[in-house]
Design goal:
single chain; 90 residues; alpha+beta; 3-stranded antiparallel sheet; elongated
Length: 90
């Protein structure tokens, strides 16, 4: 059982070439925290240096899988929308 009482937990870690890129991706994800939560799952986003972590907790495996899928897609979108901003700074 996870620290917040859910039966299942996973952490998705995404490392980037620069801390700035990780900061931009994390900033794009932060507004989504709490928006996708449902009664059976929840997520948090954190960043340390060049790594963004998404922690997904859920009551059951189906909800965990759905949370992982949703957050993986959100990260992919955040990477795409921030790609232009990081390319300009090189």
């Amino acid at each position: 059982m996870s620290a917040d009482g859910r039966d299942h937990e996973t952490v998705l870690a995404f490392s980037y070439r620069t801390e700035r890129r990780a900061r931009l991706v994390a900033a794009a994800l932060f507004p989504e925290v709490g928006e996708l939560d449902e009664s059976r799952s929840a997520a948090t986003v954190s960043r340390e240096d060049d790594t963004v972590r998404v922690r997904v907790v859920a009551d059951d495996l189906a909800a965990l899988r759905a949370g992982i899928t949703s957050w993986s897609r959100l990260v992919a979108v955040a990477e795409r929308v921030t790609a232009d901003r990081t390319a300009d700074s090189r």
